[in-house]
Structure formats: structure tokens, C-alpha cells
Amino acid sequence: MAKTNAAPPGPGRRTRVLPFLHNRTTTHRFFRLLDATATKTARRRRRRLTARPTRNRRATRPGEPKRPGAAEEPQDQAVGAAREPDAAAEADVDAAVVAGKYWAHRHSLFSLYDRGVRMDAEGWYSATPEAVAASQAARAAPGDLVVDAFAGCGGNSIQFAARGCYVVAVEIDPRKVELAAHNARVYGVEDRIEFVVGDFFRLAPFLKADLVFLSPPWGGPAYIHAPIYTLDMLKPKDGYTTFQAAQKIAPNAIMFLPRTVDISQVEELSWLSCPPLDFESEENYIHHRLKGITAYFGRTAGPPSYHCQNWDDEQAAD
């Protein structure tokens, strides 16, 4: 993934405030068009593969001096250009392969998938199922300003926006931001989401909100092989560092974590604040299969409890 880090303002410079935080109804304009980029890449590749005809070219025998004015053929460069991989094409192939494995769950991830929702390869196995995302968003109050720290393809940001919240969706991968912005338009909530390409950990000290949603990368599908998932296995930084960064933005937080996570470690996070935060954990089921654990901190938590939330096949497919 192409990483783009948003560096904090240097000394002596004024902090640049997101215009979205002043005017929440401003419509986000999406400037970089995926189709235009793909077209330019294809044209460049065709030019690289165009070779000069060699039918009438006379070969030089060993020891024979070269003819005056004869140019040396850049054969190695031509071969190298022909073999140069097209990153965008490879990403599309990877997404197609992964989609084949998770295709049956497409409507569980996005109920409006057939209207043109787009995902990359990682999105197929990392997006929060829509029913779970909607349940998590229901803990926010309409009108809240929510920071989605690892927005991905936009599933959680869309549900918070549909709830009536205003969302700052932070994602370090520009391609994922393109996909998320497109998906927000499919759901008709693009006017409530401001997409930011940047590193959450660098941006956190400069953001303020009512609620932070945290669903950091779990480490890919292989995470399921860990009998007990510990917070230091989260990416790109451990769960303690991630939670402390979120606390600089708001005392209220929601974390979506693997189903085998060590609950005692998650509860310890509530003690990082003074006074300690209220805490609640919830098991999330889709099709009667445990998909993950949601941890609620601060005012998003109800009475101390550990309960289950299940969505059956019909609800998930709606």
C-alpha cells in the first residue's frame, strides 16, 4: 500500500484546521478519479510495449566493426519495460481472487453492494459487517462528531453518517479513500463525511471530537489461528498505544476487535483514563457465527456487562 503520512505543523506555523469542522454540511469533493488514473496507466503501458520493427535490420557479426551512425539497440530496457508490473492491475487481480472467497458474504458487508460498492482485496476480509457497524453506530448520538481512525473502505463511516453523525474518516491508503468516498456516494451520505488521507497517530494530537471509532488492522485472515489474541498483535501499533492516541481526541471510544481477543486486556484500557471509563463488551454474531468483539468506553457503554448480539441470515441479507 502506498503510505501517505500527514505531518503535524512545524513550530511557528499556524495549525491548519479542517474546513469540515467549521461547516459540517460542506460536501466533500472527490477529485482523483479512479477510471482516469487507470486509463492513463494503460496508455503508458501500451507505449512501453511498442517495439521498433527489426525485420530489415542487419545483424553485426562478432569482430565486425559497427557501421557509422548505427545506434545500439536498448534491448534490455525494452524487455525490462515490457516486464514491469502494473501495480493497479495486480491490485485488481488480488481483489478478484479474494472476492471469490468472500463473495457469498457481500451483502452482509454492504447491503447495497449491487448498486456499485467497491472494495480492494483487504476490504473483503476486514470490512465490518453492515449489521454490526449499524449496531455500533447506534451508540453514538445524532449530531456527534465522530473520528473513524482506520476508515478502510468506509463501512463504519457510512453507518455513523446514516445515524446522523458527522464523520472525519482517516485512512493512510489513498486508494482506500477513493473507494470509501465512492461507497459513501452509493449510500447517499457523502455530505456528512470528510475523508482525510493521513496517519492517524500523527493527526490525533490535532483532532477533537465526541467519539472515536477504532478498528485497526488485525493482521490479516491469519489472526484466527491465534488461540488468544493479545492487544500487542494489532497493527500498525499495539492496542494500548492506539487507545491512548484516541483519548487525546475524545474520552468516548468504540473498538472492534477479533473474537479471540483477551477481554481482560481490553478492560484494562478503561483504567488508562483518570477517572476510569465505563466499560462494556459485546459479542457480535452474523449467521450465528461469532465475528468479533465490540468494546464500548465512556458514555457509549451501558451498565457493566458482557452480552451477545446476533443477526440471523434474513437480517444480514436485507
Automatic annotation (TrEMBL):
CDD domains xrefs: AdoMet_MTases
Ranges annotated as biased composition (Basic residues): 41-60
UniProt KW keywords: Cytoplasm, Methyltransferase, Nucleus, Phosphoprotein, S-adenosyl-L-methionine, Transcription, Transcription regulation, Transferase
Basic and acidic residues compositional bias, start-end: 61-70
Family, similarity comment: Belongs to the methyltransferase superfamily. Trimethylguanosine synthase family.
Subunit structure: May form homooligomers. Interacts with CREBBP/CBP, EED/WAIT1, EP300/P300, NCOA6/PRIP, PPARBP/PBP and SMN.
Protein name per the record: Trimethylguanosine synthase
